[in-house]
């Protein structure tokens, strides 16, 4: 089973450009259980399709933090 989870970047460091979007997509798409990543610097939203049996929301947030972005779940 897969679910779509939406995150919003909330920290001081925001996504500013396509490079930031690519950094987020690359960081998350390499995680087991992550099937799709859509990041938008315009809206500061990150949509992730995951298999919750393989990856947790906390793991995704930790990976985003490692990439330089603090994010919270919006749905």
Task: Describe what you observe in this structure.
By secondary structure, this protein is an alpha+beta fold. The chain has one domain: Alpha-Beta Plaits (2-Layer Sandwich). The protein is 29% helix and 31% strand. It contains 2 helices and 4 strands, in the order βαββαβ. It has helices spanning 18-29, 57-66; strands at residues 3-9, 34-40, 45-50, 71-73. The protein has a 4-stranded antiparallel sheet. A hairpin with a 4-residue loop joins strand 2 and strand 3 (45-50). The longest helix is centred in the first third of the chain and has 12 residues, at 18-29. It starts with a strand and ends with a strand.
Please render the helix and strand layout as text:
Elements: E1 3-9, H1 18-29, E2 34-40, E3 45-50, H2 57-66, E4 71-73
Antiparallel strand pairs: 1-3, 1-4, 2-3
Q: Please state the CA-atom Rg, rounded to the nearest Å.
A: 11 Å
CATH class annotation:
Alpha Beta
How is the main sheet built?
Answer: 4 strands, antiparallel
CATH architecture assignment name: 2-Layer Sandwich
Shape: globular
Low-confidence stretches: none
Question: What is the domain tally?
Answer: 1
- The portion of residues assigned to helices is 25-40%
SSE topology string: EHEEHE
In percent terms, what proportion of residues is strand?
25-35%
Number of helices: 2
CATH topology: Alpha-Beta Plaits
Strand order of the largest sheet: 2-3-1-4
Helix-strand category: alpha+beta
**What is the number of strand segments?**
4
User: Ends: how far apart?
Assistant: 18 Å
């Amino acid at each position: 089973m897969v679910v779509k989870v939406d995150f919003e970047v909330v920290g001081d460091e925001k996504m500013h450009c396509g490079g930031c979007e690519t950094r987020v997509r690359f960081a998350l798409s390499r995680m087991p259980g992550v099937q799709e990543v859509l990041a938008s610097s315009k809206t500061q939203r990150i949509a992730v399709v995951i298999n919750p049996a393989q990856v947790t929301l906390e793991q995704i947030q930790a990976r985003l933090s490692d990439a330089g972005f603090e994010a919270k779940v919006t749905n």
